[in-house]
TrEMBL record:
<feature type="transmembrane region" description="Helical">
    <location>
        <begin position="209"/>
        <end position="229"/>
    </location>
</feature>
<keyword id="KW-0256">Endoplasmic reticulum</keyword>
<keyword id="KW-1133">Transmembrane helix</keyword>
<comment type="similarity">
    <text>Belongs to the USE1 family.</text>
</comment>
<keyword id="KW-0653">Protein transport</keyword>
<keyword id="KW-0812">Transmembrane</keyword>
<dbReference type="Pfam" id="PF09753">
    <property type="entry name" value="Use1"/>
</dbReference>
<dbReference type="InterPro" id="IPR019150">
    <property type="entry name" value="Vesicle_transport_protein_Use1"/>
</dbReference>
<dbReference type="GO" id="GO:0016192">
    <property type="term" value="P:vesicle-mediated transport"/>
</dbReference>
<keyword id="KW-0931">ER-Golgi transport</keyword>
<keyword id="KW-0472">Membrane</keyword>
<dbReference type="GO" id="GO:0015031">
    <property type="term" value="P:protein transport"/>
</dbReference>
<dbReference type="GO" id="GO:0005789">
    <property type="term" value="C:endoplasmic reticulum membrane"/>
</dbReference>
<protein>
    <submittedName>
        <fullName>Uncharacterized protein</fullName>
    </submittedName>
</protein>
<keyword id="KW-0813">Transport</keyword>
Amino acid sequence: MEFQEILDGFHLICNELQGSQNYKNIMELYNRSANLQDLYENGLIIDGTQYEFDLVEHIDTTKLALDRFIQNVLDSDAVVQGHRKITSAFASLKKRLIQKEEQQKVVVMTNSQVIAPIPNQQQQTINKAKLFDTQLSSENLDDELQEEIFNITKRMKGMAVNISEQLKFDNKVIDKILHKQDGNKTKLKFEENKLTNFMKSKSLSCSSLFLMLTTSIFLFIFAIIFIRIS
């Protein structure tokens, strides 16, 4: 299946870039693709309501971002292989989606003569339905409008889940950076104290040496004077 190929491709790239500065960026792209199968099969559902979601556009956007990311990453066998897997799977999945949409259009055209036309006012309400407008009276909505709101809510729920997962990942990265900075500060403080102690010891050594040299000079002069007097 294309979905597993996409995940496998991202796993190859993520494993290759783990520990590098590019790891966070590739994980963001991975999170955008992790629930593609659920979006393909069920659409976007949030809190029991399904929202309209253009999966083809989502795939194109993710593919474009991935291509730009790969251009700035040092090539390796794992990165190249993972990119090829994802690109091939995206193309295959996009083809399936387009075929599915065409089939749905054919079914709608075939059954158009037996489907009652929607009043203009109600049709405008469907086209302009807001994503969070879930409190409309069900008595005034037909089945198609209720299904549209359900689809939009479902898609928004998936997007909210992705955002929540990304925020959790970002917080972990920030915690690691702060922890590393604290470690660097502690190490720097230790080195500073070590250098200070070293300089103090050298200063004491120089003072002692100077005192000994001065004493020796005075003793030498005193010895010469004493010899001449004698």
